[in-house]
User: What shape does this take?
Amino acid sequence: MRMNGNTILIIGGGTGIGYAMAKYFNKRKNTVLICGRKPDRLEQAAKDLPGLAFIPGFAAGMPLYSATKAGIHNFSISLRIQLAPLGIRVIEVIPPIMISELNIEGRKKRNILTLPYMMSANEYIEIVMVKMEQDVDEIRLEPHSNTKTNK
Assistant: This one.
């Protein structure tokens, strides 16, 4: 994938992996649009990253979180097939459990704030960008893999 001059839509771009991706692509002269569950974080990201735009009102509630992940996967496959003849690539990033703000209270209750295979958004983005440069369309890491050998 060419890493500049693209139009990129990032779902969940206000925090964590999405924000790290937005920052990466914004720095490389792409048009970056973000959306997500936290309007205040989207606004802050747009302030922090000049040229970044966010789509207000495009958010899912937590009860829909898992269902939307599965739906986005199937939607990505369909879009990839439908848009390929137009020269538009659809790349899906499917992260493992991460060190993030997401469900931190639930993870505290279960005493799993971090696990040996968890990584930060910045560590994950390094892996993702390598795979994008290799033209991988579905970027996923096995949840219990050694992240250093999964590049």
